Amino acid sequence: MRAPHDRDSPPDEGKARNPPAPRAEVLGKTGKPVKYLSIHFDITKLKEAEEKLKTGKMR
Fold it and tell me: How far apart are the C-alpha atoms of 27 and 22, rounded to whole Å?
C-alpha cells in the first residue's frame, strides 16, 4: 500500500519492469510495414546448450 502523500505518483514508478520484446517490421512490396514479428527467446535453453558444450555431452 502506498503512503497517503504518494497518491499522485503512478504505482509502478521506480520499479523495474520487463521491457517489451523488440518488434521487427516486415516490409511489403510498397515498402510499408505489412506485419510485425515479435522476437522472443528463452535464455535457459541457451544456458543449457552452453553447459552441454562445456561438458562434451552435445555432439
Answer: 16
Are 18 and 40 in contact by the 8 Å Cβ rule? The answer is no
Three-state SS annotation for 19-48: CCCCEEEEECCCCCEEEEEECCCCHHHHHH
C-alpha cell at 21: 520484446
Q: CA of 44: how far to CAs of 13, 41, 48, 49, in Å?
A: 29, 9, 6, 9
| Domain chopping of the chain, boundaries | 20-59
- pLDDT score recorded for residue 58: 57
Higher pLDDT, 17 or 27: 27
